[in-house]
């Protein structure tokens, strides 16, 4: 899916270029929620390198192989909660809805993020 100039895949209501697009182009996300939204948009757009680059090196897989996966149609993102524990730790609870082979799924996760070398990175998540 290629976003139109007026809508970001993360559902923020902002133009893609002013929202997740700026992080996909190399700007650093200012907080964990912005990073999580940009990671959702990266899944929608198939930006595997961005996903790997924003994953903590201790928990990052060698590859995601998104091109090998069954085609996924991402339907929407709802951020339920964003908490910053301190300057270096945060969590974001969200629900992402998607379809694979016409069957609908929802991923309800609380993701953990840390600041690593002055940028937020995804560590891991607890599935609800």
TrEMBL record:
Q: Please spell out the taxonomic lineage of the organism that makes this protein.
A: Bacteria, Pseudomonadati, Pseudomonadota, Betaproteobacteria, Nitrosomonadales
Q: Would you identify the family this protein belongs to, as annotated?
A: Belongs to the UPF0225 family.
Domain YchJ-like middle NTF2-like positions:
32-125
What this protein is called in its record is UPF0225 protein NMK_0190
Which InterPro entries does the annotation name? Answer: NTF2-like_dom_sf, SEC_C_motif, YchJ-like, YchJ-like_M
Cited SUPFAM superfamilies: NTF2-like (SSF54427)
Signal sequence span per UniProt?
none
Pfam families, per this entry?
SEC-C, YchJ_M-like
Q: Which PANTHER family match?
A: ADENYLATE CYCLASE-ASSOCIATED CAP C-TERMINAL DOMAIN-CONTAINING PROTEIN, UPF0225 PROTEIN SCO1677
| Superkingdom | Bacteria
